[in-house]
């Protein structure tokens, strides 16, 4: 089971929306995941405990240490785009 965290500035609105969209897409793709959402500050300290971090493109730099430790950091240009999220999951998370 993949461990995923969705992060936004305050850990409320955007990260909750991303979380719901990620859950929907992983379910559609038949992948079991455990998904949490939080603020960037909180996610930054926990990111290395996750397989994948989803955040806005502008926040990716906050997770450089986790990325060095093997966590995949996926920056989104449009947080509301299920198409973008699905494409990035297929490209970066699901290895064929």
From TrEMBL:
<dbReference type="GO" id="GO:0008982">
    <property type="term" value="F:protein-N(PI)-phosphohistidine-sugar phosphotransferase activity"/>
</dbReference>
<dbReference type="InterPro" id="IPR036095">
    <property type="entry name" value="PTS_EIIB-like_sf"/>
</dbReference>
<dbReference type="InterPro" id="IPR013011">
    <property type="entry name" value="PTS_EIIB_2"/>
</dbReference>
<keyword id="KW-0808">Transferase</keyword>
<keyword id="KW-0762">Sugar transport</keyword>
<dbReference type="GO" id="GO:0009401">
    <property type="term" value="P:phosphoenolpyruvate-dependent sugar phosphotransferase system"/>
</dbReference>
<protein>
    <submittedName>
        <fullName>PTS ascorbate transporter subunit IIB</fullName>
    </submittedName>
</protein>
<dbReference type="InterPro" id="IPR003501">
    <property type="entry name" value="PTS_EIIB_2/3"/>
</dbReference>
<dbReference type="Pfam" id="PF02302">
    <property type="entry name" value="PTS_IIB"/>
</dbReference>
<keyword id="KW-0813">Transport</keyword>
<feature type="domain" description="PTS EIIB type-2">
    <location>
        <begin position="2"/>
        <end position="96"/>
    </location>
</feature>
């Amino acid at each position: 089971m993949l461990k995923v965290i969705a992060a936004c500035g305050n850990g409320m609105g955007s990260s909750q929306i991303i979380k719901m969209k990620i859950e929907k897409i992983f379910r559609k793709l038949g992948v079991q995941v455990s998904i949490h959402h939080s603020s960037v500050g909180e996610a930054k300290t926990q990111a290395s405990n996750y397989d994948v971090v989803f955040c806005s493109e502008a926040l990716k730099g906050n997770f450089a240490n986790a990325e060095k430790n093997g966590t995949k950091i996926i920056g989104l240009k449009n947080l509301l785009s299920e198409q973008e999220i699905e494409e990035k999951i297929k490209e970066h998370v699901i290895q064929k």
